[in-house]
Amino acid sequence: MVMVVEAQDNLGVGHTPLYKLHTPADYAAVYVKLDYKNPTGSTKDRVAVEIIRQALNHDLLQANGTLVEASKKDFGLSLTVFAKKMGCHAVIVMPEDAQAQKAVIEAHGGQVVTTSANLGMEGARKKAQLLADEKGWFMPNQYYNPANSDAHEKGTGPEIIAALAGKRIDAFVAGINTGGTLSGVGHALKEEWVGTQVVALSNHHTPFLQQEKSQPYSLESLGNGFVPDILDRDIYDEVLQLDLAAAQKLGSEVARREGIVVKAKAAENIWTAYQVARRLGPGKIVVTIAP
């Protein structure tokens, strides 16, 4: 029997603040979506809820059923917390040397399966897939699951539009990671305004972004051993190369000046947003995200 979970039952996820940063007078305005204010401290809460909701609604996951995912970062915690809230059970697979992450998952009632540290995350992914196949468990697979980008197209993007009360957003900036935020928010904003620019951030993990979109690229490009299927390579208009040292410096300055949390990915996004804001100039609006 299919368990229908309504989209509005977001379990406290989303509707995070959109914060206007201080910028030089000759820059465009820069706003940052403070998505670390989601319940577990990460934008991954949005993704976890939407993936579980769609899986339940499409009978891919049963009430009281089990999902399994390889993760040693935020997504594992998000799945653990929201699987429990939505009547399911999460099993998170990670390398055995990820002891701090293991402790966090277990403290929140999740089950952790460990794999050899020598095999890295690729070994964890293979183990998760094996468990899914053998036991019939649902595997969220955030890099390949379109519900990831749906979470941002239906949630993050419209929230940004509503927060600015009709003001045109001239550019949106985001790193690549799974491709969900860039693709989902990008679609929402381009649907609202023709000509809104979507700018992708490129770093040492994402050199494939610099290649022509029609050219093949290495499966090792992301540093994770695979390229996210859900990345819409037609949605971004431009790729800017990250200056990591400059991003770290700006992130520290913004954190001190604004009194907000600026983790590594947020610092990279904000630095890139500032480059776009400098180019666009006064009277324009640039938005990014602190995931």
TrEMBL record:
One of the Pfam families matching this protein, by short name: PALP
Domain Tryptophan synthase beta chain-like PALP, chain residue ranges per copy: 11-289
Coiled-coil blocks: none
Protein name: Cysteine synthase
GO process annotations (BP): alpha-amino acid metabolic process
InterPro entries in the cross-refs: Cys_Synth/Cystath_Beta-Synth (IPR050214), TrpB-like_PALP (IPR001926), TrpB-like_PALP_sf (IPR036052)
Keywords: Pyridoxal phosphate
Statement: the UniProt record of this protein carries the keyword Metal-binding: no
Cofactors named for this entry: pyridoxal 5'-phosphate
